[in-house]
Amino acid sequence: MKKGSVTGVEVIGFDNKSDREALDGIIQEVWEDESWR
Asked: CB 3.0-4.6 Å disulfide test: which of 10, 13, 16, 21 passes with 5?
């Protein structure tokens, strides 16, 4: 997985569903937390 693909929410390459769901949860938390902007 390339480093910049997470920012584009490109998690299609994940074969393991649990890994993809975990990453989706992390991305969702980051997007919902606007303190980093």
From this structure: 10
Report H helices in 1-37. 17-32
Question: How many domains in the chain?
Answer: 1
In tens, the pLDDT along 8-28 reads 555 555 566 777 788 888 888
pLDDT at residue 5 greater than cutoff 80: no
> Domain span at residue 7?
3-36
Place 3 in a pLDDT band, splitting at 50, 70 and 90. Answer: low
